[in-house]
Amino acid sequence: MSDPWARVTAALTLLAVDPAGLRGLWLRARAGPVRARVQDALAAFQPRKLPPNISDDALFGGLDLAATLATGAMQRHAGLLGGGGMMALTMAERCPPALAVRLGQALDAQPELALIALDEAAQDGEGLAPALRDRLGLFLDLDGLAWSDTAPFHLDMDQIALTRARLPQVRVPDDARRQVTGVAAALGIDTLRAPLLTLACARAHAALRGATLVDAQDLAVAVGLVLAHRAMAVPDAPPPEDPAPPPPPPPQDAAQTPPDTDTAQDIPDDMLIDAARAALPAGLLAQLQAGRVARAAQGQSSGGAVRKSKRRGRPLPSRAGTPDAAARVDVVATLRQAAPWQKLRRQTRPNAPAGQVLLMPSDIRVRQFRAQTDRVLIFVVDASGSSALARLAEAKGAIELMLADAYATRDHVALVSFRGTGADLGLGPTRSLVQAKRQLAGLPSGGGTPLAAGLQLALETALQARGHGMAPTLAVLTDGRANIALDGRADRAAAGADAERLAKGVAQHGVPALVIDTSLRPNPQLAALSRNMGATLIALPRADSRALSATLSAAFGN
Fold first, then answer.
1. Judgement on whether residues 272 and 161 belong to the same structural domain of the protein
2. How far is residue 373's CA from residue 165's CA, in Å, rounded to a whole number?
3. Do 210 and 167 meet the contact criterion of CB atoms below 8 Å apart?
4. Which of 251, 358, 421, 499 fits a disulfide with 451 by CB distance 3.0 to 4.6 angstroms?
5. What does DSSP assign to residue 513?
6. What integer is the mean pLDDT of 31-38?
7. HSE-up of 274 (CA within 13 Å, CB side)?
């Protein structure tokens, strides 16, 4: 489907035909007239809006405090998930993991439920949580779609109703099931939901055409809408083959044999992979390697350490506790806890003033908040040898690119360089772009490779940053050819042993790390070093500043 707007209208129509089978739509788009036009079409679904900070009471239902206090008996209200139908998650890129998991469980448990996730992520690495990304069948990315490429669009609900009536009659051949599963595997997709959602999309498209059997056209459309954006690898296009000889003529009695209505025409797998390749989002092929790095580094680091706080941060559910100078009482949660017991307590305390809420110490609820610490990304750069000048220049460029984003992401950047017989903290943790450029300009280079000294200073810097409440991450750029021991001696064996010991120290302190091999040929010694460090290893023999910045952003969720 080469027309981007035709792809949009097809996705919206298929979602209207079978919302229960497709489970929903991941719509990635920034605010603008194009997104407004698509949202006008989505209004026909009459979705219930879910903000990313919605409470569990609003989502699942809970105690109706006002009605309970008025009647003296427990009264409950229904949650937004109780009615089924279509929901719209606004600002889906800000959806916390706990809410994403709850919504995913609701989609699994309630077949009549569907979700439209409105994702306004501005950068790669942001976006919808994996728990929802895996469950929503359709994906649309409106970035790059001009207003002139669009046209007014409204869902024809009469046609939709007729198509829904035909949908139960549509059959999927066994060969189509096998091929969709094989194409998903060829694209590196390791979830079984993807083939099932693809087949549901193909059935809806066949019903829209008025057919009762899924064919090649239906599968090609479904692969482009459901599988393309999930691709983790794209097989190379096969070389052209010699034309096959024409098939022998069928026997005379074959013309009298009616075709098998339960089998579709043979659909080449290459055609379906080509359909996925044509529908790949812009830039995805270039991001596949960075995506592998991000998955390998997943769990090693995040945007910052999350900790509980009593005073500031994002609100969390209140808990039972005793108020003090640091803890604040959550008045509404306290009243909600006490409300169901008022009638019983008045029976035991008949002399209590009328209209007074009777509280017990167990009713007290105190507030909790979740505070996220700032992150510091510590570049550990090998500034030794004849090629150090180029490596150091590219590291400087990467730091400046990362600093440009630090104002929005609240990240700090530091630089440790090592050369000669020791290491130097050339740039302490900072978010100041002016200060960074000034200090980066005068960094020296040349001499031996004291890798252990660089790791030691980087670990000290990381632990000091952690002591100030920050979340440190190391990015080590080196060719791995250590030849200066920690005591300054030119001893290659001792230098390797010291670097191994320091690498294990980084892992023992739980500091997440990324090792970037900057040598012209991958160095096996760095593979062992990264394993001891618990780090992810990337070989970038000709890395420039933008490649480093993009790789680090993908690896550490920037």
1. yes
2. 54
3. no
4. 499
5. E
6. 88
7. 10
The two tokens of residue 412 are 């700090």
> 340 CB contacts (<8 Å, ≥6 apart)?
63, 68, 74
Q: Do both 224 and 348 map to the same domain?
A: no
Retrieve residue 438's tokens: 């000034």
CATH (domain of 183): 1.10.8.80
**Contact, 115 vs 132, CB < 8 A?**
yes
417: tokens are 């360089």
Please check whether residue 126 is in contact with residue 93, taking contact to mean a CB–CB distance below 8 angstroms.
yes
d(CA 16, CA 107): 17
Running DSSP on this structure, what letter comes out for residue 447? S
User: Cα–Cα distance between 375 and 474 in angstroms, integer?
Assistant: 11
- Residue type at 410? R
Is the distance from CB of 428 to CB of 416 less than 8 angstroms? no
User: Cα 344 to the chain's mean position, in Å?
Assistant: 49
Give the pLDDT band (50/70/90) at residue 22: very high
Closest CA to 297 of 100, 557, 478, 503: 557
Which structural domain range is residue 349 located in?
Answer: 307-371
> Whole-angstrom Cα distance, residue 28 to residue 12?
14
The C-alpha atoms of residue 31 and residue 17 are separated, in whole angstroms, by 27
Query: What type of residue sits at position 37?
Result: R
Measured CA to CA, the distance from residue 18 to residue 203 in angstroms comes to: 9
Q: Which structure tokens are listed for 439?
A: 């200090």
The CATH number of residue 102's host domain is 3.40.50.300
Residues 422 and 461 in one domain: yes
Q: Is 267 left (phi over 0), alpha (psi -120 to 50) or beta?
A: beta
**Cα–Cα distance, 498 to 96 (Å, whole number):** 42
Cα-based distances in Å from 403 to 9, 413, 441, 499: 40, 7, 15, 29
**Same domain, residue pair 394 and 518:** yes
Same domain, 323 and 432: no
**96, two tokens:** 């916390």
Helix (H) or strand (E) holding 350: none
pLDDT tens sequence across 358-408: 888 888 888 877 655 678 888 888 887 745 555 666 666 666 666 666 555
pTM: 0.54
For tokens 């309630």, the residue is 110
Amino acid at position 11, single letter: A
Residue 160 lies in a domain: yes
User: Do 162 and 69 have their domain in common?
Assistant: no
Show which of 155, 177, 210 is a domain's final residue.
155
Number of domains in the chain: 4
In one letter, which amino acid is 331? V
Q: What is the pLDDT of residues 319-342, one digit of tens each?
A: 787 776 567 788 888 888 888 888
